[in-house]
Design a protein that fits this description.
The complex is a heterodimer of chains A (347) and B (140). With 347 residues, chain A is of the alpha/beta class. Helix content of chain A is 40%, strand content 14%. The chains are: A alpha/beta (347), B alpha/beta (140). Chains A and B meet through helix 3 and strand 3 of A and helix 3 of B. The complex binds zinc ion.
């Protein structure tokens, strides 16, 4: 069973001429889900607006007030990439609440897989700043709600860009494990393997930067060799995925070379992180080539639901395997230097 | 007085950032330092590239010539990310900025708005001194 959120917002809201973060993206994602022919297994969950209390778990209240006022004042550019319009506050709070609605419905049913098909995306949104097309950090709002209920959440972020906002928000949170596979160097510039989490949550951040041209085999190996042992040691009770599709070879934003078949492989892997049903939800992040986005969302959900999907095969042969060795080494060195600092402070 | 060898100035193509570059270049000239003109490349610059990565923008070259700074002491660097994080990162090697120079507003559209204010955030988080050049005033 798949639970999809209908963001209940007019698709023409939050739009800027020529901007690639556009309403057609969420329509493409929803189209992918309808073409899977799931019949009554496709459940549409209405979105709701995230409350101030729910948002303020991950955002500074001063930022929330200012962003709301900025939008209702007519909006404008927040930085060189990120825009807000009069409608943006209402669509962004619905996008953040949509994840909460899906999580609640999964808990009620004790079964199913969620796909939160909303925009604007969220993973670059910092505690107190909009960035990289993102206003509110949708996945973080849901993860924080789960943590408040005593859950341990792994967030897997396979968007081609590092999710700097999510990493910052949970930097010192021991009940959230943030894992990012991303192209580097690339916007936003963060996402080094030596970023391993704050002193209260060392090891709760795992970054796997990948070179331009990397193909699916490298990401599969990263999940097996580097990510799986860290997830096992963490022991998550929920899996949330920052499912961006801009690592697709057709996407104009970056240079990773994944096919829709690779996204199916990634989805199958992360779905195994928690055995209990009803504890897996995907959140749409990037993905700017509409056909690639539609096919990749379809491949993702077909893979986790066991539904048939005629897509592209998995890819192999790109660069990056040697990077994985250095990622593991840099992460180990970062741990050692933290331990050394802690030892020196104790003396 | 400490040695000041490495000055970094943020540049986004705005008149304000040109003023900041001019101030930084004059200081570099005066104290015999190098100046790194740093441009933060946002997510959209992949699609249309106003700043070619390898080439110093003409406006910067002109300022360096006008202020008679040895061109070899001015470096043009493009870093991926938002302006604030890129400036903060520049304090670490390899650039190792000892002083950051920023225009007061940059891309923040509205005076007084906290969101989008690079200078405010850099001042809050920088580990090295920061000079904020006020907007639309003649460079000092
Ligand atoms: Zn992205």
């Amino acid at each position: 069973m798949v639970l999809v959120v209908n963001d209940a917002a007019d698709d023409s809201l939050h739009e800027s001429p020529e901007h690639p973060e556009r309403p057609g993206r969420v329509q493409a994602a929803r189209a992918a889900l309808t073409t899977l022919d799931l019949g009554s297994d496709l459940v549409v969950v209405p979105a709701r607006v995230a409350t101030r209390a729910e948002l303020s778990r991950v955002h500074a209240v001063g930022y929330l007030d200012e962003l709301g006022a900025y939008c209702y004042g007519g909006g404008g550019d927040l930085d060189q990439d990120t825009y807000a319009t009069y409608d943006s506050w209402s669509i962004a709070t619905l996008a953040a609440g949509a994840g909460l609605a899906v999580v609640t419905e999964l808990q009620r049913r004790g079964d199913g897989v969620g796909f939160v098909a909303v925009r604007p995306p969220g993973h670059h949104a910092l505690r107190d700043r909009a960035m990289g097309f993102c206003l509110l950090n949708n996945i973080a709002v849901s993860a924080a709600a789960l943590v408040a209920q005593g859950e341990r959440v792994v967030i897997v972020d396979w968007d081609v860009h590092h999710g700097n906002g999510t990493q910052q928000i949970f930097w010192d949170e021991p009940n959230v494990l943030y894992i990012s596979l991303h192209q580097w160097p690339l916007f936003p510039g963060s996402g080094s393997p030596v970023e391993i989490g704050g002193p209260g949550a060392l090891g709760s951040v795992l970054n796997v930067p990948l070179p331009a041209g990397a193909t699916g085999d490298v990401l599969r190996r990263a999940l097996e060799d580097i990510v799986a042992p860290v997830v096992d040691a963490f022991g998550p009770t929920w899996v949330l995925v920052s499912a961006g599709y801009d690592a697709h070879y057709l996407d104009p934003m970056a240079d990773l070379c994944l096919s829709d078949g690779d996204f199916a492989d990634l989805a199958s892997s992360v779905a195994r992180y928690v055995a209990t049903p009803g504890r897996l939800a995907f959140f749409l992040e990037g993905g700017y080539h509409l056909d690639a986005l539609r096919d990749s969302v379809g491949a993702t959900m077909a893979a986790v639901l066991g539904a048939p999907h005629a897509g592209e095969p998995s890819t192999n042969g790109g660069p990056g395997a040697s990077h994985l060795v250095s990622v593991a080494a840099q992460r180990r060195a970062a741990f050692e230097s933290w331990t050394r600092v802690a030892g020196e402070e104790a003396r | 007085m400490m040695n000041l060898n490495s000055i970094v100035v943020g540049y986004d193509g705005s008149v304000e950032s040109e003023n900041a570059v001019r101030w930084a270049v004059r200081l570099a000239h005066g104290v015999d330092a190098t100046v790194t003109v740093l441009h933060a490349a946002g997510i959209l610059e992949r699609l249309d590239t106003p700043f070619r990565r390898s080439a110093t923008p003409e406006a910067v070259e002109r300022i360096v010539a006008e202020e008679r700074l040895d061109a070899a002491r001015c470096h043009w660097v493009v870093d991926d990310g938002d302006a604030c994080s890129a400036l903060l990162r520049s304090a670490a090697p390899p650039i190792g900025a000892q002083l950051l120079v920023v225009g007061s507003r940059g891309h923040g559209k509205r005076p007084g708005m906290l969101i989008g204010s690079v200078s405010l955030e850099v001042v809050q988080h920088a580990a090295v001194p920061v000079v904020v050049i006020p907007g639309f005033e003649a460079p000092v």
